[in-house]
Write a structure and sequence with these properties.
Helix 7 crosses helix 13, helix 9 packs antiparallel against helix 10 and helix 15 packs antiparallel against helix 16. The chain is α/β, with parallel strands linked by helices. It is built from 16 helices and 18 strands. The strands form three sheets. Strands 2-1-3-4-9-8-7-5-6 form a nine-stranded mixed β-sheet, sandwiched between helices. Strands 12-11-10-13-14 form a five-stranded parallel β-sheet. The structure holds xanthosine-5'-monophosphate. Xanthosine-5'-monophosphate binds next to loops.
């Protein structure tokens, strides 16, 4: 392990304890490599990512039930293309090569790989050869004609004589292969993506028909292992955790608390830009229920004075970011003797920061997550990131296992700069109060109509314009509030939610009647792109 890796205290993958099933995923740099690991977990088997440089002996020592070679952007003949130790194909471990993983394995075992006539990207019709769907095979119970998702330039063109072809597509004669004497299988397509409708079945077949797994992995096991690892890394030291009240930091705090109890101190920065009752929810959950050492840094005055007279969204963010670092640093200094800082970095954050490749995981940089914490070297902490292999919905499942309240576990994302980017124009306490009241009504109605879990993010925005209205017998000239509700997989793109009109009508009527100073409510029907989710 490199110095950088040990500095991050990411424990190396350990050998599976006797009886514990483990399937390894060798990461050749595909964007979907972690998705393979995730599908394996979904199928009830523990999985870990490893680097292509792992020697066969090291892999054998981990006693895996199976090994998957992921896809990747390289071409096998390219100089510097990632390779694996060819001795892995002599191990008595079933191997599934996916896309580049299949091409590399076939190439190392004597087959010919060539550039296809055209890059194939998207849906392809696949036909299975007779016998491919029999019991105990990769395609057991999968229809003889189905479709799969392809994304490749190269493909295996000349198959060495010890291989059999299991399936083909019109443009890919060896879309799936099997070695006759070694436990090797290869697929040119991507079974891990949902666009391959039987992909999850194929992965299950690999695990259950070929690797003979029993499916013993549960999220509760992940929790136990993380708790154990955290205890091992932290020893008798203390840990500091920045708690924002979002799902990720809440799950990290609850997990750390289970691992080290009162040697965890959480800091929650009240920046005065929070939603109604947000601070109360965090306090009642973590201080009253979990009884953890929670310190509140009440810095609302500082944040609001920084924002006085500022209308430019970027300048608001800069000022909030700077103040946050200052407040957090002060709060951290007050926590004596903490050596570690815990963060809720998730796998998509790791990918976004461009370091998703297990082969490079030693170099993973600190990702500036929601709270916008200062760089680690400025704080002088070592980092603990127990969620870095998980996807968001897995974190929610973990939160449920930890006993966090539904309100926290299923929370929509909330931006670090808080309501400051939803009060358009100048942020003042009276305008924040108006927005908080509108937002509370909106969330109440959306939740009681059963739309909170069906949407990805719902919020109100206070616009910097006034409009004419009529109330009673009088003319009003008051604020306009916009309602934003979106559905999104990854928040990189989003569509506006088709909320029922009667729900929108109730929200609108309650807002103009119950919140002073608002005379008009509008509904945002912009998708992202071209609009962003937040208005600023
Ligand atoms: P946009 O507005 O860029 O938002 O479409 C995408 C997602 O990111 C959240 N968001 C932020 N989160 N700090 C954050 O921690 C920020 O400055 C920030 N800006 C936007 C937004 O709420 C949505 O979930």
């Amino acid at each position: 392990m490199t110095a950088a890796a040990s500095e991050h205290r990411q424990p190396p993958p350990a050998a599976a304890p006797a009886g514990e099933e483990l399937v390894l995923v060798m990461d050749f740099g595909s964007q979907t490599a972690q998705l393979i690991a995730r599908r394996i977990r979904d199928a009830g088997v523990k999985s870990l990512m490893i680097s292509p440089s792992a020697p066969a002996a090291e892999i054998a020592a981990m006693r895996p039930a199976g090994l998957v070679l992921s896809g990747g952007p390289a071409s096998v003949y390219e100089a510097g293309a990632p390779r694996c130790d060819p001795a892995i194909f002599d191990l008595p471990v079933p191997i599934l090569g996916v896309c580049y993983g299949m091409q590399l394995a076939c190439h190392l075992m004597g087959s010919k790989v060539t550039r296809g006539a055209a890059r194939e990207f998207g849906r392809a019709e696949i036909t299975l050869n007779p016998g491919a769907a029999a019991k105990g095979q990769l395609f057991t119970s999968i229809p003889a004609h189905t479709h799969v998702w392809m994304s490749h330039g190269d493909q295996v063109s000349g198959l060495e004589s010890s291989f059999d072809t299991l399936a083909s597509t019109p443009t890919c004669p060896h879309a799936a292969v099997k070695h006759r004497t070694r436990p090797f299988y290869g697929v040119q397509f991507h079974p891990e993506v949902t666009h391959s409708p039987h992909g999850a079945d194929l992965i299950r077949n690999f695990l259950y028909e070929i690797c003979h797994c029993r499916g013993t992995w549960r999220m509760a096991d992940f929790l136990d292992r993380q708790v154990e690892q955290v205890r091992g890394v932290v020893g008798r030291e203390r840990v500091l955790c920045g708690l924002s009240g979002g799902v990720d930091s809440s799950v990290v705090a609850a997990l750390l608390h289970r691992a080290i109890g009162d040697r965890l101190t959480c800091v929650f920065v009240d920046n005065g830009l929070l939603r109604k009752n947000e601070r109360n929810l965090v306090e009642s959950t973590f201080r009253d229920h979990f009884r953890l050492d929670l310190r509140i840094a009440d810095a609302s005055r500082g944040f609001l004075s920084d924002l006085a007279g500022i209308e430019d969204p970027q300048e608001k963010r800069r000022r909030i970011g700077r103040r946050f670092i200052e407040v957090f640093k002060q709060a951290a200094l007050a926590v004596r003797g903490a050596k570690f800082l815990a963060q809720g970095t998730l796998y998509p954050d790791v990918i976004e920061s461009g370091h998703g490749h297990a082969g490079q995981s030693a170099n993973i940089k600190l990702h500036h997550n929601v709270g916008g914490l200062p760089p680690r070297h400025e704080l002088g902490f070592e980092l603990i990131e127990p969620l870095r292999d998980l996807f968001k919905d897995e974190v929610r499942k973990l939160g449920e296992v930890l006993g966090l309240p539904e309100q926290l576990v299923w929370r929509h994302p909330f931006p670090g700069p808080g309501l400051a980017v939803r009060v358009l124009g100048e942020v003042t306490e009276p305008r924040l109060c108006v927005l908080r009241d509108c937002d509370e009504i909106l969330l109440e109605e959306v939740t009681s109509a059963g739309y909170y879990r069906k949407t990805s993010q719902v919020f109100a925005v206070l616009l910097p314009v006034r409009s004419v209205g009529v109330m009673g017998d009088g003319r009003t000239y008051d604020s306009v509030v916009a309602i934003r509700a979106v559905e999104s997989e990854d928040f990189m793109s989003a569509d506006w939610a088709r909320l029922p009109h009667d729900l929108l009508a109730r929200v609108s009527s309650r807002i103009v009647n119950e919140v002073g100073g608002v005379s008009r409510v509008v509904y945002d029907i912009s998708s992202k792109p071209p609009a962003t989710i937040e208005w600023e």
